[in-house]
């Protein structure tokens, strides 16, 4: 492979390698969770890949919402979607549980970790995450529009801190 073909290959691969490096530098815990999930064989099944995608989607929504009071809601909905939108099978449930366990192993935050796991299990069981973890715990995230309601103004606005 010489000349233009090699150059085209480099153009295709370079952004992927750069993205992987940036992710490892900016989000070391996220890559540690991914490595743990690989060791546990999560990505060996279609249901496992789907569950990983749904949990990843919930993680990014939680990251961009940037509201600490809302983390249990995102744990719950991520696990709910990972099981109930990914074949609703035992395989999807095991994959979601393995990924959740990996995240808790990496973060290791004691009592909060136990509460996270409780929210994870509620989601996998198909419980109503909104009823459990939104305003009842002063989480003012609005799932339909992805915004956080500023409690002081009783209006839905995008805020950076809760």
Rg, alpha carbons: 18 Å
CATH architecture: Orthogonal Bundle
Query: What is the H level of CATH, i.e. the homologous superfamily?
Result: Serum amyloid A protein
Question: What's the β-strand tally?
Answer: 3
Low-confidence runs of at least 5 consecutive residues: 153-162
The secondary-structure element order is: HHHHHHHEEE
The rounded distance between the terminal residues' Cα atoms is 54 Å
Summary of the model, kept short:
This protein is 66% helix and 5% strand. It is mostly helical and 162 residues long.
Report on this model:
The chain has 162 residues and is mostly helical. The chain has one domain (27-156): Serum amyloid A protein (Topoisomerase I, Chain A, domain 4), CATH 1.10.132.110. Helix content is 66%, strand content 5%. The chain contains seven helices and three strands, in the order H-H-H-H-H-H-H-E-E-E. The protein has helices at residues 4-26, 28-39, 46-65, 71-84, 90-107, 111-125, 129-133; strands at residues 141-142, 147-150, 155-156. Strands 1-2-3 form a three-stranded antiparallel sheet, with no helix packed on it. The longest helix has 23 residues, at 4-26. The radius of gyration is 18 Å and the shape is globular. Mean pLDDT is 81; it is low at 153-162. This is Putative conserved secreted protein.
Topology readout:
Elements: H1 4-26, H2 28-39, H3 46-65, H4 71-84, H5 90-107, H6 111-125, H7 129-133, E1 141-142, E2 147-150, E3 155-156
Antiparallel strand pairs: 1-2, 2-3
